[in-house]
């Protein structure tokens, strides 16, 4: 191969990701995500959460479990180092903490913070591209696997969120990694693993703390 | 004059009937066009110097006047989770069904900015007690370490994204101290325990407050509202949870249901009774005119009220219709006189004098109501005076041509004798004397609430609310007025300051907690700054502990920054931005003709009545302050209406005496004519006194009926004794009394307190008055005045 051509290839390889960043999400790729995600009825996975916060000298790492059932049931639970979590069932939910007995019911309508969090989690869980396109400016920053950068418009979400990075599975059916970047440079990375797609889930998972 | 008219219309009956027909059409049309005002306003005194009317207007502006309270209860405190879930589910269901707001806790919107606003507000709210709490936290390493662990754990949850900034700005959760100040805004003394929800101290009760635009007096809408609530309760709550609904709307519906039931019962009984009277004593289809003729003046009389008053009161119209009973006497006497078999013109001429006399006394008696402090009673005076005048005219001019001529039994009995009943007169005297002793026991009750239906369910609801949540709806209301919101708040702050300075056990729900005066805010600010200067070492210790827990050196520097920055002034916009708009708006009255008022709720229950009164008078010395105490309001109303009532009775009696004195010019006849009134009133007052029945706003009207009818009976019976009969006077008096008893006495069977009290009053009074007229007057006349009979049988 001509050395010029080799150099060109090397340059392209180096700058390709940057060229992808600048691109909007191609329609065929969007279709692929929509099509794959539509097949997903349930998800269950484990996750590792890493918090890179300026408040701490070191990264805060925690582990947890995540369950989702279409259309609007979700369980998010930290198991280590502190047990806490919540379930969502439509507009209603319950949250708990290991230091407190029982759980506290809430309504998303009354709790703007939980409402925003639920919105995010459902969007990732469903890989709901239509919803994401309505609520974020989406840019493609990786193709294999698909990785998107989501920037929220001005509004309540923008108060704590600068942008999100979402990485999809090879099949584009579900999310494998999320990074939540805040305005002050702090960010949280959540890596999902051991994901089961469409495995049957017991209904009690989404009824409360003891549902698992 | 009457003879001329009688003779003229004898030959022109068609003309008379056409004119009367027109009169009926006009009267009916006027009645249909009038829209009476369905409020209690007309029954509130408007005398100069009386604050009752203003107080009532202020009471309508009470923060909880129109809310529906739902108490949810479980028998076992272990079922709190079920209670909580049931409460939430019911709140959702009610909001969906009623498209309204349902509050299950202090109305604080969970806005993102609330905590930061509470933190920001603390420097200007802080008290010495608050600073002691902070000092205690700073002095204990264990407390601070525990807090740091909490912060760390919280930051790991998804909620941590939301709360990180707040945790950095306020690591010691000082916002809670500001939030504690908000507790002073909680009107429910019985609430405690769970944050953000109305939960009773024992955890067995939760409270929901339903907002509604339905007026308390709107029966149809109230019924619909309560039905929706009942359905939501039935569909949503698990069997373990019991719901009790307390609201003014429930009283409205209960009253309406009772009145409907009462109308069915009373109407049936009265119809049967009147039918029997008709069949036994009248026995003629033309007798229907006896009832129709007086009724046809209703529209004209109501119209005359609107000429003198801007609004016709529904209560006036209702009572006016009742008082038309008096005018039935006129037509009854004409009917009996003209059907007695004699020459019609002669009978009419003999009847005219007592008829005019009785109408005149009633007319004059009602005229004293023109001086009443109650606008409704003044309206009633105009109504009754018009009705009496019109009914008299119809009785003398129209009735003779409608009632036909006599035949049969009536005509044959024209020469009946006056019967004397000496034994009955003695018995009457004993009864009156016994009753007279009971009069001293008679009380007057101006409490409007006691005229409302009180079912077991309503009583239970009220008692439960009071026991679990405190006596929210009976608290003293303090309105601080100002031309602007700022002015009103300044007055309100002075009120709170005065109450605090009294150091009484009175508790106050006031916006002053959130909005102290600028001077107080400045004092708190100095206190706050001084504290942190003195506690720098302890604060540094917190930093050291934070670093031991893995926090960076800059983790909480925004708290340091906040300490050195100026604290924002606490004003309305500040708290509205914080999400406390609902709390503030609930205690603001912005629809005043001029300016705004801030409402505070004062519980003086523990302060003792004297101290409470002293406090009230001190508060009222602050310009712009109006104090409305519900029990004092009831006392004042009771006192004023009671005074009005006594004045009326005395004036009416005086007027009647004067009219009778002029009319008869002889003491004996005057006293005799008054005897049925005296007998009726004394027996009525006495029996009520002995039975412990109080006089109220409604049966005052019944007293008027007793005076009006009693005088009529007296005049007719004196006339009968004086000039002889031949006109079935006894029968006319008896029928008049029986129809009154059938119509109004049957109200005694009603369950509604107002209707029943009126029925009982009429029953006692009319029975006594008619017995006095029929049994006592002829007997006394025979012994006292028989020296100069002017004819007729004796």
TrEMBL record, chain A:
<keyword id="KW-0732">Signal</keyword>
<dbReference type="InterPro" id="IPR029046">
    <property type="entry name" value="LolA/LolB/LppX"/>
</dbReference>
<keyword id="KW-0449">Lipoprotein</keyword>
<dbReference type="Pfam" id="PF03548">
    <property type="entry name" value="LolA"/>
</dbReference>
<dbReference type="InterPro" id="IPR004564">
    <property type="entry name" value="OM_lipoprot_carrier_LolA-like"/>
</dbReference>
<protein>
    <submittedName>
        <fullName>Outer membrane lipoprotein carrier protein LolA</fullName>
    </submittedName>
</protein>
UniProtKB/TrEMBL annotation, chain B:
<protein>
    <submittedName>
        <fullName>Exporter-like</fullName>
    </submittedName>
</protein>
<feature type="transmembrane region" description="Helical">
    <location>
        <begin position="671"/>
        <end position="691"/>
    </location>
</feature>
<keyword id="KW-0812">Transmembrane</keyword>
<keyword id="KW-1133">Transmembrane helix</keyword>
<dbReference type="GO" id="GO:0005886">
    <property type="term" value="C:plasma membrane"/>
</dbReference>
<feature type="transmembrane region" description="Helical">
    <location>
        <begin position="424"/>
        <end position="444"/>
    </location>
</feature>
<feature type="transmembrane region" description="Helical">
    <location>
        <begin position="697"/>
        <end position="719"/>
    </location>
</feature>
<feature type="transmembrane region" description="Helical">
    <location>
        <begin position="355"/>
        <end position="374"/>
    </location>
</feature>
<feature type="transmembrane region" description="Helical">
    <location>
        <begin position="762"/>
        <end position="784"/>
    </location>
</feature>
<dbReference type="InterPro" id="IPR004869">
    <property type="entry name" value="MMPL_dom"/>
</dbReference>
<feature type="transmembrane region" description="Helical">
    <location>
        <begin position="731"/>
        <end position="750"/>
    </location>
</feature>
<feature type="transmembrane region" description="Helical">
    <location>
        <begin position="315"/>
        <end position="335"/>
    </location>
</feature>
<feature type="transmembrane region" description="Helical">
    <location>
        <begin position="289"/>
        <end position="309"/>
    </location>
</feature>
<feature type="transmembrane region" description="Helical">
    <location>
        <begin position="380"/>
        <end position="403"/>
    </location>
</feature>
<dbReference type="InterPro" id="IPR050545">
    <property type="entry name" value="Mycobact_MmpL"/>
</dbReference>
<keyword id="KW-1003">Cell membrane</keyword>
<feature type="domain" description="Membrane transport protein MMPL">
    <location>
        <begin position="641"/>
        <end position="782"/>
    </location>
</feature>
<dbReference type="Pfam" id="PF03176">
    <property type="entry name" value="MMPL"/>
</dbReference>
<feature type="transmembrane region" description="Helical">
    <location>
        <begin position="15"/>
        <end position="34"/>
    </location>
</feature>
<feature type="transmembrane region" description="Helical">
    <location>
        <begin position="645"/>
        <end position="664"/>
    </location>
</feature>
<feature type="transmembrane region" description="Helical">
    <location>
        <begin position="265"/>
        <end position="282"/>
    </location>
</feature>
<feature type="domain" description="Membrane transport protein MMPL">
    <location>
        <begin position="184"/>
        <end position="426"/>
    </location>
</feature>
